[in-house]
Design brief:
237 residues, alpha+beta
């Protein structure tokens, strides 16, 4: 859950504390407050395989790269009401030829299960409630077009061993970027390639990203090429 700060005082205190403390445990949003430039938040989100975070550790059992988390909306997408057939249809689509595996959408609430209770709950919460049919929601989840998607969600954890912040969660879409986690706000970020070491000759592969303006390097095109398509080459073919 993102921490919501509703008062100016709380935000000012966070700025002060961030200058005093070495570590930051915050949720921040960057961008203009001009109403004319307001963009509704909309985000295609992914969990990175990571043995040191709860969901990342379960994800790592399924993929050495990432797991699809879902698609987050801020506003209704249509006036379409929920249909009784929505959930059974979504279940059928996900299970057909193990489609959920093809798109790396696993049940991370229970490490012994891969599909599909969690995915169906997410569809109801993130798609059906916003006016989307199963087909419409899956289209959102599997739209890998890079246009119109900027980094707008980033979660980090600080690694004392590497002296860098490990990226554990990312999202791309519209709206202000939100950054959360326990991290050092003056060192770079990294994405770790967690394939078994022999796959790349016993060298740990990492992607290093500058902490100063991560959104300029960690674009959706960059993430798609260096993470998504390594797990699922068919996406970039």
């Amino acid at each position: 859950m993102l921490i919501q700060f509703t008062s100016i005082f709380a935000k000012q205190m966070l700025v002060i504390l961030s200058k005093i403390l070495f570590f930051s445990v915050i949720s921040t949003s960057y961008g203009s407050k001009n109403a004319a430039s307001f963009e509704p938040f909309e985000s295609l989100q992914f969990i990175l395989a990571d043995p040191m975070s709860k969901n990342g550790a379960i994800c790592l059992q399924h993929s050495a790269f990432y797991c699809l988390h879902g698609y987050i909306f801020q506003q209704k997408q249509s006036s379409r009401p929920p249909q009784e057939s929505d959930v059974p249809l979504m279940s059928s689509l996900l299970r057909s030829d193990n489609y959920y595996q093809l798109i790396n959408w696993f049940d991370l609430s229970n490490s012994s299960s891969s599909c599909c209770d969690a995915q169906l709950s997410k569809y109801q919460a993130q798609g059906q409630n916003y006016g989307l049919s199963p087909f419409m929601f899956l289209e959102k989840l599997t739209n890998y077009d890079v246009s119109g998607k900027k980094l707008n969600r980033l979660s980090l954890r600080y690694s004392p061993e590497l002296c860098l912040n490990v990226v554990t969660y990312v999202g791309f879409g519209s709206g202000k970027i939100q950054v959360t986690g326990l991290y050092n706000n003056s060192v770079d970020y990294l994405i770790v390639d967690r394939r078994p070491l022999p796959d790349f000759q016993n060298e740990l592969q990492i992607i290093r990203i500058s902490y100063k303006k991560p959104e300029t390097q960690l674009t959706f095109e960059f993430f798609k090429t260096n993470v998504i398509c390594k797990a699922n080459p068919w996406i970039c073919e």
